[in-house]
Amino acid sequence: MDKICVRGGRPLSGDIVIGGAKNASLPLMAAGMLTDERLTLTNVPVLADIATMTALIAQHGVAVESQGNDSRTLSIGGAITNTEAPYDIVRKMRASILVLGPLLARVGEARVSLPGGCAIGTRPIDLHLKGLEQMGAVIRLDAGYVNATAPSGLRGAAIVLPFASVGATENIVMAATLADGQTVLANAAREPEIGDLVACLISMGARIEGAGTDRLVIEGVTKLHAATHEIVADRIETATFACATAIAGGSVRLLGGRLEHLGAVVDIMGQAGVEITQDGNALVVRRLNGLHGVDVMTAPYPGFPTDVQAQFMALMAVAEGASMLTENIFENRFMHVPELTRMGANINVHGSSAIVRGVSRLSGAQVMATDLRASVSLILAGLAAHGETTVNRVYHLDRGYEAVERKLAACGADIERVAG
Ligand code: EPZ
Questions:
Q1: 123 alpha carbon – ligand 1 mean position (Å)
Q2: What's the confidence (pLDDT) of residue 151?
């Protein structure tokens, strides 16, 4: 297994290209199953999760082809010949559940393995299933699989999500595009990745109103057609490199970053002593003077993203004063704490909150990645640590970040990947 070694103490300067959003790419690829024509996606990031989603969609019979040798352009579409999403693929990537809505909408049946939990939580899918049942799906759980049918097709429904679930919103919206009649989805998630999915579906002929709001109205149509869609820039990667610049010091331009997609991150980083401004198609991130402790509570967009909590904690570990980070979205998203503590961070977890007391310097250590965002938070801590940090099990990192070590090295970090 590969490792990443970081020797801290060097400020960052230069440009970092932000890639297409992982969390937009996965639902968009599933959307390609809604038509027998071709959906062409551009600005696709090269990630392990994309390869997993490609394999999943292909085993349903739907062609997924990269154009020429450009793996950042995928063309998806065709007949569905297999309606089962097997456990050995779904267990590797929970987002596999996003084929459920398209399968039901397109062919009226699906047998999708229950995703099961992951390191950060139990990750239930009850909201996905309840919404689809309200649209007429008959769902039975059996032997660890969701067995779903829609014998007379899906019909529009008025659905209220008790929690603004990103995945449930995506599954219900995709299913509703081909349902008979109108679906009104209230308390829908408003993450930019949802807006990107809605924009793509509209370009395929779907009729959807309310993009960007928490109320989506979908008029079902009989068929969706070919389209080409450029995947939105990854706001979590953007926020991650903003935290990297803050923790290492210096100033970096994030090419493709969009201020309005960062939501509460901009103000929180400002309070911490880090300025983020839009300059054309780039975000300029600059650490002003010292870093200050800031309290944060994770929340659905436009609140502070749970996917940035681990990275921000690494920053708070070396800020002046104390901060309290409260994780309101997932029940077990503090696995980075014991690893940061091994590097000298002063962090105490009380239930869903972590109290971080800044220290003047972290010290490099051997640490273990446990999940995608925890992995990158350890690399960020290594940028500020005295000595060498070795992050093990970076396969977690490769699921959602493309060439982190190359992007940071190009901005002056002393970092390398060691094949293991
Ligand atoms: C998406 O996961 C993202 N993944 C996650 O990113 C992200 O952390 C999360 O949204 C929140 O923003 C992708 O987009 C592929 P949710 P998802 O449904 O859809 C509960 C990363 O690091 N819930 O909004 O699974 C659930 O338990 C990953 O890139 C139910 O109770 O998130 C959780 O507590 C991690 N029942 C909360 O809602 C349901 O049916 C948020 O889940 C669904 C969710």
A1: 7
A2: 86
Smallest CA separation from ligand 1 atom 13, residue: 23
CA 366 to chain CA mean position, Å: 27
Give SS3 for 239.
Answer: helix
Give the list of residues 6+ apart from residue 353 with CB closer than 8 angstroms, or none. 324, 325, 326, 327
Indicate the helix (H) or strand (E) that contains 203: helix 192-203
Q: What is the model's pLDDT at position 109?
A: 98
The pLDDT score that the predictor gives to residue 117 is 67
| Predicted confidence (pLDDT) at residue 254 exceeds the cutoff of 70 | yes
Q: Over 80: is that where the pLDDT of 229 sits? A: yes
User: Quick one: which of 116, 112, 95, 125 has its CA closest to 31?
Assistant: 95
- What token pair was written down for 269? 């980083």
Backbone dihedral angles phi then psi of residue 269, each to the nearest 5 degrees: -65, -35
How far is the CA of 18 from the CAs of 22, 110, 215, 237, 418, in angstroms?
Answer: 11, 35, 29, 7, 23
**The tokens of 300 are what?**
């659905």
Q: Above 70 in pLDDT, residue 398? A: yes
**Catalytic residue ranges:** 118
Q: 106 φ, ψ to 5°?
A: -85, -45
Atom number, ligand 1, closest to the C-alpha of residue 121 = 27
Q: Which of ligand 1's atoms lies nearest the C-alpha of 400?
A: 29
Confidence (pTM): 0.97
d(CA 178, CA 104): 10
CA–CA distance, 222 with 171 (Å, rounded to integer) = 18
* Residues having CB within 6 Å of any atom of ligand 1: 23, 26, 95, 121, 123-128, 163, 165-168, 306-307, 329-330, 372-373, 400
Whose tokens are 């967009």? That residue is 301
Task: Mention every residue, 6+ apart, whose C-beta is less than 8 A from residue 226.
Answer: 35, 37, 38, 39, 40, 77, 204
Query: What count of Cα atoms within 13 Å lies in the side-chain half-sphere of residue 38?
Result: 12
Q: 21: which 2 tokens? A: 């959003």
Confidence of residue 126 (pLDDT cuts 50, 70, 90): very high
Range 320-346 average pLDDT: 96
Q: What is the pLDDT of residues 133-180, one digit of tens each?
A: 999 999 999 999 999 999 889 999 999 999 999 999 999 999 999 999
